[in-house]
Design a protein that fits this description.
- This protein has a single domain, classed as Nucleotidyltransferase, domain 5.
- Helices cover 47% and strands 24% of the residues.
- Helix 3 crosses helix 4.
Length: 139
């Protein structure tokens, strides 16, 4: 089962897709669109083309577990994607973008290069986290 992860942002949205077996994170890219409806349409089209069965949307709760404005925007994206032929999962992704920045810094990516890829890396981290969770759940 192929899984897609989404790190939704106001200016850029990171997307990552697993392999067909749903075990390994694969391709990652960034959607540069500000309109949430268009972002949802792009994600839905990519999911259908890639035969995705589940879309995991990063749900950035506050550090104390409460729901803030960023999480509400992610929920809105999830609502726009519902009603398609794939499962929608809201996934707690606290600290994911910070970890993505750290990974990019450690690999020598700074400035514009980092800005263009951080959301794709964050989506990959969300995907890896979800895939590890589902793999451990099966054991």
């Amino acid at each position: 089962m192929r899984v897609m992860a989404v790190d939704y942002g106001d200016a850029r949205t990171g997307v990552a897709v697993s392999d067909m077996s749903g075990i390994l994170a694969g391709q990652a890219w960034v959607i540069t669109e500000r309109n949430i409806t268009k972002v949802a349409e792009t994600i839905a089209n990519e999911a259908k083309t890639r035969e995705v069965k589940a879309i995991v949307i990063g749900y950035p709760k506050n550090m104390n577990g409460t729901i803030g404005p960023r999480a509400e925007k992610s929920k809105r994206l999830a609502d726009l994607l519902s009603g398609n032929d794939f499962e929608i999962v809201l996934w707690d992704e606290r600290m994911t973008t910070m970890n993505a920045h750290r990974i990019l810094s450690d690999s020598g990516k700074y400035g514009k290069k980092r800005k263009q890829t951080v959301d794709a890396v964050a989506a990959s981290l969300i995907l890896e986290s979800y895939l590890m969770y589902t793999a451990n759940k099966k054991v």
